[in-house]
Write a structure and sequence with these properties.
The structure is a single chain. The chain has 258 residues and is an alpha+beta fold. It has 2 domains: 137 residues, no CATH class; 92 residues, OB fold (Dihydrolipoamide Acetyltransferase, E2P), CATH 2.40.50. It is built from 5 helices and 8 strands, in the order H-H-E-E-E-E-E-E-H-E-H-H-E. A 6-stranded antiparallel beta sheet has the order 3-2-1-4-5-6, with no helix packed on it. A two-stranded antiparallel ribbon has the order 7-8. The protein is elongated, with a radius of gyration of 26 Å. The N terminus and C terminus are likely disordered.
Length: 258
């Protein structure tokens, strides 16, 4: 691992350097916009998570409402149960015989290696737990399986996505600033610092790190605690990871950043 600190006067055109600086600035604006778009719904998602964690079984009056802010139990008969491919993964998809209230009328995707995938078959009676319009869990024969996509899984992921966009946006603005300085140096014929190689392989600490931290924090902590922990852990590791990536000198850089 070597550090490139030598100043040199390299051939180039000021116009090209200015265009490169503008391109970095535009990229920074786009990434910053994505970060804001991911961060704005965090407060609402945290409120949903807190409401979901405090939900209790529905009473008789709210049991018929698919938007009720309580845990509702819907009983139904299995129409079909089979392994299917959903995107790139296999799931054990269960469909109930209609009519059943929403959201139990939608397919229920269970773990292909879970206990229910070996027990549930067409004609069986199952219990679907729902909250508002979200499928929460499926139960059968004394066993229950939690379904993916619950409200308590979304807040930290949005924070992770926001951080994964915000930090590259900062780096892009730095690149734009240094690119403008390089253009001025080229125009004046003065030496300047070379660009630092920062290819795709070096983006792990910038993009993958906040997502990984968000997933882990969401599994250990809840609501605002998970959000704050995600930011703190990421902040403590983002700068060192980025510096390490920029100092890592690859033999054949696939990309550059200022």
């Amino acid at each position: 691992m070597t550090v490139r600190t030598a100043w040199r006067a390299a051939p180039g055109r000021p116009r090209e350097a200015w265009l490169r600086a503008v391109a970095w600035a535009l990229l920074g604006v786009v990434l910053l916009g994505l970060a804001v778009a991911a961060g704005v719904p965090v407060r609402e998602r945290v409120a949903d998570e807190e409401a979901f964690q405090g939900a209790r079984p529905c009473g008789s009056e709210a049991a018929a409402e698919d938007t009720a802010d309580c845990l509702r139990t819907i009983r139904g008969t299995v129409l079909s149960a089979e392994p299917v491919k959903s995107g790139r993964v296999m799931v054990f998809r269960v469909r109930l015989r209609g009519p059943v209230p929403a959201p139990a009328d939608r397919p229920l995707d269970l773990d292909t290696h879970g206990d229910l995938s070996e027990r549930v078959k067409p004609g069986d009676e199952v219990e679907v737990t729902t909250w508002r319009n979200v499928q929460v869990a499926v139960g059968h024969d004394g066993r229950s399986e939690t379904l993916p996509g619950l409200p308590d899984e979304k807040a930290t992921m949005l924070v992770g996505l926001a951080l994964a966009c915000a930090w590259p946006a900062i780096l892009a603005f730095i690149a734009a600033f240094r690119g403008a300085g390089r253009a001025r140096c080229l125009a004046a014929g003065r030496p300047f610092a070379p660009r630092v190689a920062f290819g795709p392989a070096k983006c792990i600490g910038v993009v993958a790190l906040p997502i990984t931290v968000a997933i882990l924090a969401g599994q250990v902590w809840d609501a605002w605690t998970a959000v704050a922990t995600t930011v703190v852990i990421w902040a403590a590791t983002a700068l060192p990871a980025t510096v390490a990536g920029m100092l890592w000198d690859r033999d054949e850089p696939r990309g550059t950043a200022d």
